[in-house]
Amino acid sequence: MREAVVSFKDFSFKYKHQQEATLHDINLDIYRGEKILILGPSGCGKSTLANCINGLIPFSYPGTITGSLTVAGLQTQQSSLFELSKHVGTVQQDSDAQFVGLSVGEDIAFSLENQSMPRSEMLPIVDEAARIVDMERFLTHPPFDLSGGQKQKVALAGILHDAEEILLFDEPLASLDPAMGMTAVDLIDKIHKESGKTIIIIEHRLEDVLYRHVDRILLINDGRIVKDCTPDEMLYSGVLKIYGVREPLYIAALENAGVRFEEGEHLDDIEKIDIDRYRDAVLSEFARSKPYTVGEKGKVVVEVENVDFQYNPDHKVLENVSLTIREGEKLAIVGKNGAGKSTLAKLLCGIIRPISGTIRINGENYLSMSIKEIGQLIGYVMQNPNQMLVKDMIMDEITLALQLNEFPEELIKQRAEETLKMTGLYPMRNWPVSALSYGQKKRVTIASILALQPDVIILDEPTAGQDYRHYTEIMRFLDDLNKNYGKTIVFITHDMHLAIEYTDRALVFADGKLIADDFVYKVLSDKDIIERANLKETSLVLLARKVGLDPEEFIRHFIEREREERENG
Amino acid sequence: MDSFGKRLFIALTPGKTFLDRLQGKTKIRLFFAFILILVATWDMRILFPILIISIIGLISIKPEWKTVRGLTIFTLLMNLFNLFLIWVVSPNYGYSQVGATTVLVRFTETYILSAETLWYFLVRLTKFMATFFVSLTFIQCITPSEMAAGLYGVGIPYKISTVVSLAFRYIPEIARDFNEIKISMQARGLELDSRKSSLITRLKQNVLILVPLIIVSFDRVGNIADAMDLRGYGRMKTRTYYAEHELTKGDRIINIVNVLLYAGFIAIVVVRIVSHREFLIWAPWVK
Amino acid sequence: MAKKILGNWNTRTIVGVAIGVALFGVLMVYGGVKVFTNTSLTSAYVVVAVVAALFGPVPAAITAGLGNVLADLIGGWGFWFDWSLGNLVLGFFTGLGCVLGSNVKEGVFNTKSAITYALFVLIGCGLGFGVVTPVLTYFFYSSELTITWGQVTAAIISDGLVLLVVGIPLLIALANRNKKFTGLSKD
After folding, report:
1. Which H or E run contains B287?
2. For chain C, is the Cβ count within 10 Å smaller at the N or the C terminus?
3. Residue C155 Cα to chain centre, angstroms
4. What is the pLDDT of residues A369-397, one digit of tens each?
5. C176 and A432 in contact by Cβ < 8 A?
């Protein structure tokens, strides 16, 4: 008989300061050596579930537990955080916050230091852990030199040597670009196979996790397990969409073509699907549907011409970049970390200025304008809304920029009202900011920028860390601003779904150079660009090849179909 | 990291010179020995050799000369200016410290320049510059991790040394947030360098940057603390440090030096108490 | 009460103090408001008030003391016990002022809180820079005190000003963030 290492029995949990329980009646056994994916929308309780397993609940987050939870033979309530940490290792979502050491080696050694292990015993263990995650050449590097993916590898190395039985990953892909995400999933798989430890992954990016085999998927909603089955059964059941979890793109495309899968069919990997059976359906859907076309765009708003930028003389951050942005466009700036994406955004906002080359806004060279003047033409929305929110009340937040720019009282009132209506915040205008959800806060920050009525809005990773439902809410809102008010919208992102579904054009950066400036569907079917920019080939390309269609055209049709569906609700 | 990294005079990776390669603990003991002696004594016969030693120490670690030069000039000028102010306020200050007045130049009835005042200034300058060079050498040859490990090694509770290393860990990220928030407020119309608005207005405008900065910074606390708890932080009464290497020959030598220095410090204090000089400062020509 | 003053020294508090010290250092270097050339009012001191409000007076005192040492060290201008200890005292009293009349964590900071806070800031300034620093300066450096008095007065005015003019609005803003809202309706 298989041995359960984690066993929930009629388990419920309510946080101390909350009225309602977050987890209800959980009955779940996770067996030794299993690899499990826990799915569910934000706020469904999946992170709470993870924190129950690693002991943060109840030891750091007090609350009321009913029922029982046994982890590696320990009743968690009678155990301690330290005792549990010997059995469960956790890699958290925020790879930056959990890197507490000042070098890679130190961070890997952190738990050993806490056990008071003599340094001589520590060294070989640290070296071995670093080797497993392929970071042994970076042992002396400080965290500031590392990418998100590297930090996460370090986090993993830091628990590998300690946790004897269970490795828990809380949204490991959230801050990684597509290629790094693939590497992470690969690494987890390798460790699972080599160590035989139990792996629990919490994610909402299903398709990315399914890049490597998973034994079982749990779907959680409203604090309850709503489905507990194999990946194939999960995909076959079609329940994911109901709970706001994104299906893999190839599944969506096949379903669009009216395909009905068979029970017991292998669906978790496109390579295992017998595409021949579905070829006709896909081809006829392709013939029936329209390709996505980008409408005529307005006048040129921003022109970037041969721009170079560098922070220090020996390293160019941007090299000979030229591009134009037209009124009413929606475009994505993509590329790996450090490729120059955010530098371009900073240049456009005038925070830094080009070393050589020119930038023109509405035909005028922007060197003569101050940051404040540029701010009225190009608005910049930071990733984390808390970085921008200053005032207690929504109304004050929105009028702040107008007041700082010393607009007359009349105009401030009028502009604020327009902005509130545009952004759907009017009914909440007198609410305190602290009462808002993350998505609503994001909306307020966008509104606070919109109040100045800029032509272009640049958003840095607007959907980072958001589940599909919240993500859709934010993106639809931006889509409306674009469609109804003609705002030009520029996204800086590493999320390819976002680029596919919500933008017309992609600017792809690699090593400081603009390596592609084209329709999204073209960029995404170009293998060379995908590799250079750390992107990932979408499964749509593979599907298209298998049925014998041009990937570019296939993606184009897929985009159109998705947009139509979105518009029809 | 860009601009702030350069302003951070502490190096994150250990250097290769003799002082660099000592244990954190040894460096901290050595630093405090010098600082204590520098605080305790006003005797030029002790201060001057320490000044020379501290300069040799600084040279031995091969620091970045541009920064060192700038800082040295700045510190020197500040000290000279302070001395000038002392002279302006009490022109015969040397008498109260040395116990004699040998007039060198008489400007007016009260404004004189005496040899004793000059001597006091020289002693004081030596004392302060030596303190400066000792501090600079210390900060340039220790990494924050060694500092944390060393503080624990000399008996400071490890919870305090964690504060030190964590602070260094998050300084660059907070500096980055600070810059980004400032710029985003400027884009919304905040004018920071305007000379038009009053001091109070400018202070109030500062709140516009501080509110988000403080909220974003303290938002991290929960995640960081969880990450530490999950890896057993605070589990035991003692702790070891990956950054604190084993005792080397250099450490043994310096530890002997340290013992001598602390003995010297005690001797200085005892002599000061026992001899009970009427005037603080020894000068070669004053009996 | 003892816990209220000492603070609960768990991992969270240690991290909070560390973040406070880091913020203090960053603001010391960057966050100045230029008064004249080379003289600036630093907003770093408000961090102490925030740490006090979130974690208590002793953590606040340590933030002020260590923050000052660290700022001295990374600023490269040496090491001044006398001022660091003065700051420690100011930090402690600022902390008391934040804990006795208000509860920022639960969203409470009213007029009475502001008055209590202001009173303790003034006591802290007076004791820290008016007594501790000059005594230590005299003891350690046998300095001509006239100049120290000048520096002390400048420190009391500037830090007091920052702690009051920037600190109070900031504490109010933080308290408002932590308020629980119920019964909001759209209109």
Report:
1. none
2. N
3. 13
4. 888 889 889 999 988 888 899 888 899 99
5. yes
Domain boundaries, chain B: 1-143+243-287, 155-236
Strands (E), A163-206: 166-170, 198-202
Are β-strands A456-460 and A378-381 bridged in parallel, bridged antiparallel, or unpaired? parallel
**pLDDT higher than 50, residue C37:** no
pLDDT band at B2 (very low <50, low <70, confident <90, very high): very low
Would the pLDDT of B10 be above 80? no
DSSP per-residue codes, B57-93: HHHHT---HHHHHHHHHHHHHHHHHHHHHHHHH-TTH
Which chain A residues touch C179 with a CB distance below 8 Å?
432, 434
Query: Inter-chain contact A434–C176, Cβ cutoff 8 Å?
Result: yes
The answer to whether the CB atoms of B207 and C17 lie below 8 A apart is no
Which residue segment(s) compose the domain that C115 sits in?
2-179
- Torsion, CA A308, CA A313, CA A314, CA A317, rounded to 10: -30
C2, two tokens: 């003892």
Per DSSP bridges, beta strands A4-15 and A23-31 are antiparallel
Question: Each residue of C103-114: pLDDT tens digit?
Answer: 888 888 888 899
C72 domain residue, yes or no: yes
Strand-by-strand arrangement of the A198-202 sheet: A88-91, A166-170, A198-202, A35-39, A216-221, A224-229
Whether the complex's predicted ipTM surpasses the cut of 0.90: no
C172 contacts C108 by C-beta, under 8 angstroms? no
The total of structural domains in chain C comes to 1
- Residues facing B114 on adjacent strands: B103
Q: Residue B6 has what pLDDT? A: 46
In chain C, whose CA is at the least distance from the CA of B159?
A: C14
Query: Could you say which of B168, B223, B229 has the minimum Cβ distance to residue A94?
Result: B223
CB contact under 8 A, B239 and A387: no
Instruction: Find the CATH number of the domain harbouring C109.
Output: 1.10.1760.20
Q: Which of A59, A97, A371 sits opposite B186 (nearest CB)?
A: A371
Give a yes or no: residue C185 inside a domain: no
Q: How far is A84 from chain B (nearest CA, A)?
A: 9
Tell which B residues from 241 to 270 touch A, by Cβ distance under 8 Å: 241-246
A283 in contact with chain C, both atoms CB, cutoff 8 A? no
- Between chains, do A113 and B212 touch, taking CB under 8 Å as contact? no
CB contact under 8 A, C70 and B167: yes
How much is the pLDDT for B1? 37
CB contact under 8 A, C23 and B163: no
Torsion of CA A216, A219, A220, A224, to 10 degrees: -80
| β-pairing verdict for A513-519 and A505-510 | antiparallel
Q: Chain A residue closest to B173 (CA)?
A: A144
- CA B230 to chain C, closest CA, distance in angstroms equals 11
Residue C103: inside a domain: yes
Q: A393-429 as b/e, with b when 16 or more CB fall inside 10 Å? A: ebbbbbbbbbebbebeeeebeebbeebbebbebbebb
**C13 lies in some domain:** yes
Cα A206 to Cα A252: distance, rounded to the nearest angstrom: 13
Cis peptide before A58 (omega within 30 of 0): yes
Chain B touching partners, 3 or more CB pairs below 8 A: A, C
Cβ atoms of A361 and A425 within 8 Å: the answer is no
Q: From B286, A208, A226, select the one nearest A217 (Cα to Cα).
A: A226
Distance CA(C52)–CA(C59), nearest Å, equals 7
Inter-CA distances, A273 with A206, A255, A264, Å = 17, 13, 11
- Closest to A468 (Cα-Cα) out of A123, A204, A83, A94: A204
| Nearest CA-CA partner of A211 in A238, A175, A250, A241 | A250
Could C181 and A432 be called an inter-chain contact, meaning their C-beta atoms sit closer than 8 Å?
yes
Structure tokens, A223 = 């604090």
User: What is the amino acid identity at position B37?
Assistant: I
